[in-house]
Amino acid sequence: MLVDEDDKLNDEKMRGIARKLWIAGFFFLPWVWMINILFFLPHRKVLSPAIIWYLKYSLIGFFVYTGIFMTWMGIYLVNRNKWGAFGDSISITVPFG
What we know:
Blueprint: H1 11-24, H2 30-40, H3 49-83, H4 85-89
Helix pairs in contact: 1-2, 1-3, 2-3
GO cellular component, one term: gamma-secretase complex
Protein name: Gamma-secretase subunit
Keywords: Membrane, Notch signaling pathway, Transmembrane, Transmembrane helix
């Protein structure tokens, strides 16, 4: 965290923050998992095993979700025209032309 108030948080509050961010990531928000990691790792030298567990699985979840999303985007972008009306119906914006 960029503010020195980070040092005033006790271990229980930090664990609560890590847990809340970890749970929030399950609602299709993988960037929250990355925020969880960036919030703790660069500025903390000593972390409890519980916080490390949340950070480890936040990192794994971020990479898994991002990998699945990028794979889907690649498949969709390559095959949207071949899928015809179905490809257009699952599109957020229908391109003209």
